[in-house]
Amino acid sequence: MEFLRILTKTSLFLAIFLLVSFAVPNANAADKENCLMCHKYRQIGRIDEKGIKRSYYVNENIYANTTHRNVPCRDCHTYINRLPHDPVTEEVNCSNECHIKPPFSKENFSHRKIIKIFNKSVHGIKKGDSEELKAAKPYCKYCHLNPVYRTVAEERIAPTALNRCLNCHERKGVTAAYKHITHRLRRKTSRSPQEIVQLCSKNCHADIEKMEKFKVSKESLEAVETYNESIHGKSVALGSQEAADCVSCHASSAIHDIYKKDDKTSTINIENRTKICKECHDDINERFVQIDVHPKIEDDPILHFVTMNLTVAFYGTVFGLLGLALIETVGRKKDGIKWQIRRGTTWRGRSKHWLKKYGD
Are the CB atoms for 97 and 110 separated by under 8 Å? Predict the structure, then answer.
């Protein structure tokens, strides 16, 4: 009996161990050169020349669920040519080719096309930029931090469409491609409007001191404030997933092609506004696109008057309803009705008026 008990415990332990081993994803597929032999330790790092602690720890289970989970380490860290490697002095170049091929493609994947678009944009580094301006401009990792990969449920895939693809293509490749494409078609970006507004504002456009240092226009200095005052900004602040955020107006489907409004290729150029506004609004004309999307309420007496009236109407409605509820509560208490939350209602008993008229 003792032998059977030990055998049962051992079998149970092995079953749990195997279950956990297969259930927890790992990064071994992308770690062909065994970089995690060192980088799996939590305390790995150093104190740099500025006295800041730099951590080089990589959590393999988290990494295995990120967008770059299948990319070998040296596809990004190409300057490493031996192990253990020398101190890292180069930054990662996101335009490098990866040693992975997307479904239906014969070429290795690369971000080169999108980086070319970004470099032409207002955020790209130009020849005449000072070192301070170069350092202040956003770069790939400012917005993209190897986000966790969110799979799309199989139920959301139209089976009839996918089954036709499987007549020629392998299920694994075509399913992954179908999920990716349908996910991207749902919205212009994978971030919510709230996340985009926060990303553009945080440490950049909302930093007035930084913006003044680079001599941006007054309109640009007030961009975050005036957007938050606009109908779009207020809708996004209230949780809308449909209202326009920064990218909705300032970029095309390429996302990274943000230019100054005087540039003829800019989506907010007066000649191109009709096209960008039509993405959300059906009935628009030349007068519609003239409406200021970033209104300065104090500078426009009509807008200021309308805003004041709407504010009074809103708060008047809210406090008016609260006042009515308070008056009704006091009235019912005076009439002898008990206030008790029970079985889905807050009022109990008969009022004095009812008892006087109808009795017990």
Answer: yes
Six token digits for residue 241: 């997933």
Cβ partners under 8 Å of residue 184, min gap 6: 190
111: its two tokens: 């971000």
85, amino acid identity: H
Paired tokens of 14 = 């092995």
- Cβ atoms of 112 and 178 closer than 8 Å: no
Distance between CA atoms of residues 149 and 234, nearest Å: 30
120: pLDDT strictly greater than 50: yes
DSSP-assigned letters across all residues of 270-320: TTTHHHHHTTT-SS--TTGGGS-SS--GGG-HHHHHHHHHHHHHHHHHHHH
Give me the pLDDT at residue 87, please: 83
Q: What is the DSSP letter of 207?
A: -
Look at residues 79, 73, 94, 59 and name the one whose alpha carbon lies nearest to residue 31: 73
Residue 359 burial class via C-beta count within 10 angstroms: exposed 0-12, middle 13-18, buried 19 and up: exposed
Per-residue pLDDT of 191-207, as tens digits, reads: 889 999 999 998 789 99
Preceding peptide of 147 cis, ω within 30°: no
Q: Is the peptide bond before 295 cis (omega within 30 degrees of 0)?
A: no
Each domain of the chain, given as residue ranges in start order, spans 138-147+190-299, 148-188, 304-358
Strand partners, 47: 53
Residue 351 in tokens:
């009022």
- Single-letter code of the amino acid located at 46: R
